[in-house]
Write a structure and sequence with these properties.
By secondary structure, the chain is mostly helical. The protein has 3 domains: about 190 residues, Growth Hormone, Chain: A, CATH 1.20.1250; about 55 residues; about 210 residues, MFS general substrate transporter like domains (Growth Hormone, Chain: A), CATH 1.20.1250. Helix content is about 75%, strand content about 0%. The protein is built from 20 helices and 2 strands. Strand 1 and strand 2 form a beta hairpin. Helix 11 runs parallel beside helix 19 and helix 16 packs antiparallel against helix 17. The chain is globular and about 60 Å long. The two termini are about 35 Å apart. The relative contact order is 0.14.
Length: about 500
């Protein structure tokens, strides 16, 4: 791995860290923000939801724009928007300015995030090096997931909530300088470099956004407004109709944004299902475990955030060795067993009670962290079945799947927790005992789904067999190898 490519990897890793961090850094600071800006409950919800709604809704659009207009261009544009919006959010003195800034942050993140995996794919054409770079990218995302609550709690408790957003400004500026110098211009014009013609696929862009926006909104607002309310049912109906329209539009395009035939590919379809289950278990449980740590165990925001750091460190460590493990025992075995470890960790957390200590959390958190890190070959294997010129959309699909899975996790586990909690309260149990019953039920459901994802990964990835690399001159100007995948094993 040359020094120049290390700088490219550092640039995309920093951008990934920033955008992932803003998914959860704000959660533990919400009480402080609510108090200082005099926010209503609705205002608090939209400070969080505005970012997620725009980010998730435009990920596929951002991926397509990167494939058409250039990954470096979109990387720089998205990062610039995100950095300026972070400055505006930190300076916000009213809820309106803060929510608008969060919308702009979501737009910037939706433009920059799909470019990160696409730039890695193009910079590291050799399958082994690419897998290692994807592992590093994933490890950075895992660190952001854990460091977010710790930074959010520490800054809001000891400094000011504004610094949750100001933190992005120097990091964003430095990443822009690094990206401008390190990422080569030819990495920003993938379609031109492959002889393709520029075609936005307007109908695909519109219908994909019409799938993701109402689906995201419905998942965010369903609990508060009621799952059978006309608005929420209408959102889901619109998303379903748009999904059908998207499939029809893309199947009749000469140059589709997403080749829908990929979903008939066993590796891609099974890998996507496993990825959704992974996100469902990890992100869904993460949210409600934060509530458990603060409301039941009475940890401070800072201590609650620090409890997730060992998990993230182990996830990052697992990511760094994941490809060597997959090479030794096969991707289907390594990913399947890894998701089994995650499921075991989530299920074992049900044994924790109302008097658990910080140390008691470490065993289940360690299983979740190690298992989560070892699932990285799932991403690199799925990238191998995507056409190189569609790497931006591929990255958008991965990240949109993860965002939707996270929202589904919070929604489904939240609904289960709420239903069980209400039943226990009506039966005369205390509020803490009622919460614990619902929380444990949600953990078991999540563990079951993650285990099912492990089975899906085992079955779907069994047919993948790496072939000998084909040496070519990559678009970075270096000799490399294009990943090749064979069919079912004999």
């Amino acid at each position: 791995m040359t020094l120049s490519r290390r700088w490219i990897l550092l640039a995309v890793a920093l951008a990934t860290f920033m955008t992932y961090l803003d998914n959860n850094i704000i959660n533990v600071a919400l009480p402080t923000i609510q108090r200082e800006l005099h926010l209503s409950i609705s205002g608090v919800e939209w400070v969080v939801s505005a970012y997620i709604l725009v980010f998730a809704g435009l990920l596929l659009v951002g991926g397509r724009l990167a494939d058409v207009f250039g990954r470096k261009r979109l990387f720089m544009l998205g990062l610039g928007i995100f950095t300026v919006a972070s400055l505006a959010a930190g300076l916000a003195g009213s809820v309106d300015v803060l929510i608008i800034s969060r919308v702009a942050q979501g737009l910037g993140a939706a433009l920059v995030t799909p470019t990160t995996l696409a730039i890695i794919t193009q910079t590291y054409p050799d399958p082994r090096e690419q897998a290692g770079a994807v592992g590093a990218w994933s490890a950075v995302g895992a660190l952001a997931l854990a460091v977010g609550p710790l930074l959010g709690g520490g800054l809001s408790q000891h400094v000011s909530w504004n610094w949750i957003f100001f933190l992005n400004v120097p990091v964003g500026a430095a990443t822009m300088v690094l990206g401008a110098r390190a990422i080569p211009a030819d990495a920003g014009t993938p379609l031109e470099a492959t002889g393709g013609r520029r075609h936005l696929d307007i109908y695909g862009l519109i219908t994909s956004a019409l799938v993701l926006f109402p689906l995201t909104y419905g998942l965010i607002e369903g609990q508060r407004r009621g799952w059978t309310s006309p608005l929420i049912l209408g959102c889901f109906a619109l998303a379903a109709a748009a999904a059908v329209a998207f499939g029809l539009v893309e199947s009749h395009q000469d140059d589709p944004m997403v080749d829908v035939s990929l979903f008939r590919d066993r590796v891609f379809a099974g890998g996507s299902a496993a990825l959704v289950m992974w996100g469902f278990g990890l992100f869904g449980i993460y949210f409600f475990t934060s509530l458990y740590l603060q409301n039941v165990l009475h940890f401070s925001p800072t201590v609650a955030g620090s409890a997730f750091v060992p998990m993230a460190v182990l996830m990052a460590a697992g990511a760094t060795i994941s490809n060597r493990v997959a090479d030794r025992i096969g991707a289907h075995r390594s990913v399947g067993v890894a998701m089994g470890l995650m499921a075991a960790g989530i299920a074992s957390a049900t044994l924790l009670g109302t008097h658990a200590s910080f140390a008691d959390l470490m065993a289940p958190f360690a299983l979740i962290g190690i298992g989560g890190g070892l699932t990285i070959p799932l991403t690199s294997t799925m990238l191998g079945v995507m056409p190189a010129e569609r790497a931006g959309v591929a990255s958008g699909i991965f990240n949109a799947s993860r965002e939707m899975a996270g929202l589904l996790g919070v929604t489904v586990i939240g609904a289960i927790l709420s239903a069980r909690e209400t039943a226990q309260l009506h039966a005369g149990h205390t509020a803490t005992d009622a919460f614990m019953t619902g929380y444990r039920t949600g953990l078991l459901v999540a563990a079951t789904l993650v285990a099912a994802g492990g089975v899906a990964a085992w079955v779907s990835l069994r047919q993948v067999r790496p072939l000998a690399p084909t040496t070519v001159v990559g678009q970075t100007g270096e000799s490399g190898a294009l990943p090749a995948l064979a069919g079912a094993e004999a």
